[in-house]
Design a protein that fits this description.
With 385 residues, this protein is mainly β. The chain contains one helix and 28 strands. It comes from Fregetta grallaria.
Length: 385
C-alpha cells in the first residue's frame, strides 16, 4: 500500500521482492511454497499473504522474511485468489476446490487462523471483493460471472440446494439464442442490449449468434445474481476485478479450448436499485465497453488492473501491455458514459518482453506500471503521454 515493495509470484515456488523506485532486487523467498505461487495480497504496510497450488496460504512479515508468520490449511486444491477486508481483518481466499474460505486474522497464531467455508460452487476460477466489501464477484470456467450482493463475511451463505447454481430462468422475448458466437455477451439495462448500435454493427457483427440470459436468485438475504456469458461450445476463463470507484467491473475472457478464438476485455457498470417487479429477473451489470484481445498463452489467466484513478486499464497483450481508456482523452467514465456498448480506446502499447505477458499492475502512488511474462522477466514502466 505504501508502494515501497513490489512482490512477484512465480511459477516455481518463489516470491521475489523488489524496490519499485530503484528497481533493485530486495530478496528472493526461494521456497515460499511447495508449488506454484499464484497470488499475493498485502494486508497492511508490513504483512502480506501468498497462496499456492500446494493448497496453502502463507502469511509473511516484511520485517522478518526468513520464516513465515504462519501457514493456513483449509483448501483441498489449488488456491488462486486472496482478498482482505481491512475493516473486519478477515482474509478471504478461493481455490479450484470451489470453496471460498474466510480466515480470522484477528485470532492468528503460529498454527494458523480460525476459518470457515463461506461459499461453494463448481468451476470456480476467480473471486474478488468490491473495495467496500459489499459485493463479491466470482467467475467460473463454465462462463458465468456471479455477483453476491449485501455481503456479510461473518455469515456463511447456505446454498446447499443450488450446488451448481441452477435456477428457473424467465427468459425475455429479447434474449437471443442460437448455435454459435465469437463475441462477448452484451448486457443491457435491465437484462439485455439490442444489436442496433455502432459497436454491434462494426465490431460485433457476429454477436447476434449468442446465448444471453440473466437471472437473480433470491436466497433471503443476501441476494445472489447469476449472469450468463457462456458461448455455445466454447468455455471461458474469466478474471474479475472491481474498479476503484466501486461502480465498475471488468472481465478478461479467453477460450481455453479454441486457441484461435479471440479473447475479450469487457467493462461492466453496476446498476444499483431493486428490480421493477420482484418476480422478474434483473441483471445489475450493463456492458459499457469491450475490446478484442490476443488469445495467446493458452491455459494461463491474464491479470488486468485499473489505474488508481480508474481512468485507464492496463491489459496484457501478447508480448507487452496495452493501456486502454474509455475515450481517447482518458476521461472518467461518468464524463463519457456511452448509451450503448462501445469499444475501449487504445491509449498506448508497451512491448519489452520476449514471452507472453501474464500480469500487469499499476503503482498505487506513482505513475508506474509493472508487468511480468511467462519466462520470468519483470518490467517497470513510467509511461509518458
Amino acid at each position: 500500500p505504501c508502494r515501497s515493495v513490489l512482490t512477484v509470484a512465480c511459477e516455481q515456488t518463489e516470491v521475489l521482492l523488489f524496490d519499485p523506485i530503484s528497481s533493485k532486487h530486495i530478496k528472493t523467498l526461494s521456497e515460499a511454497h511447495e508449488d506454484c505461487v499464484n497470488n499475493i495480497r498485502f494486508l497492511d504496510n508490513r504483512l502480506f499473504a501468498t497462496c499456492s497450488d500446494d493448497t496453502t496460504i502463507a502469511l509473511w512479515d516484511l520485517r522478518k522474511l526468513n520464516t513465515k508468520v504462519c501457514t493456513l490449511h483449509g483448501h483441498t486444491s489449488w488456491v488462486k485468489n486472496i482478498e482482505y477486508d481491512t475493516n473486519t481483518r478477515l482474509l478471504v481466499t478461493s481455490g479450484f476446490d470451489g470453496n471460498v474460505i474466510i480466515w480470522d486474522t484477528n485470532r492468528c497464531t503460529e498454527d494458523g487462523c480460525p476459518h470457515k467455508k463461506f461459499f461453494h460452487t463448481r468451476f470456480l476460477m476467480r473471486m474478488r471483493l468490491t473495495p467496500d466489501c459489499s459485493k463479491m464477484l466470482i467467475s467460473t470456467s463454465s462462463g458465468y460471472l456471479l455477483i453476491l450482493h449485501d455481503l456479510d463475511l461473518n455469515k456463511s451463505l447456505e446454498v446447499g440446494s443450488y450446488p451448481i447454481l441452477r435456477a428457473r430462468r424467465t427468459t425475455s422475448s429479447s434474449d437471443i439464442t442460437s448455435s454459435g458466437s465469437s463475441g462477448p455477451r452484451t448486457v443491457g439495462s435491465p437484462c439485455h442490449q439490442n444489436d442496433s448500435g455502432p459497436l454491434s454493427e462494426k465490431h460485433m457483427s457476429r454477436s447476434s449468434q449468442r446465448e444471453a440470459r440473466a437471472c437473480r436468485l433470491c436466497l433471503g438475504a443476501p441476494a445472489f445474481e447469476e449472469v450468463t456469458s457462456r458461448l455455445t461450445q466454447v468455455h471461458f476463463k474469466l478474471k474479475a476485478q472491481p474498479e476503484p470507484s466501486e461502480h465498475l467491473n471488468f472481465t478478461r475472457c479467453s477460450s481455453c479450448k479454441t486457441p484461435f478464438f479471440p479473447g475479450w476485455t469487457c467493462v461492466y457498470e453496476f446498476q444499483e436499485g431493486a428490480p421493477v417487479r420482484p418476480v422478474s429477473p434483473r441483471c445489475s451489470l450493463r456492458l459499457t465497453h469491450c475490446i478484442e484481445e490476443a488469445n495467446v498463452g493458452r491455459g494461463y489467466i491474464k491479470e488486468l488492473c485499473f489505474s488508481p484513478d480508474g481512468r485507464m486499464i492496463s491489459s496484457p497483450h501478447g508480448f507487452g501491455i496495452r493501456l486502454l481508456g474509455f475515450d481517447a482523452h482518458c476521461s472518467e467514465l461518468v464524463d463519457c458514459l456511452p448509451k450503448e456498448a462501445s469499444p475501449l480506446k487504445e491509449i498506448r502499447s508497451l512491448y519489452s518482453h520476449n514471452d507472453v505477458v501474464l500480469t500487469t499492475k499499476f503503482s498505487p502512488t506513482h505513475c508506474q506500471i509493472a508487468s511480468g511474462c511467462l519466462s520470468g522477466r519483470v518490467s517497470l514502466y513510467q509511461p509518458k503521454f
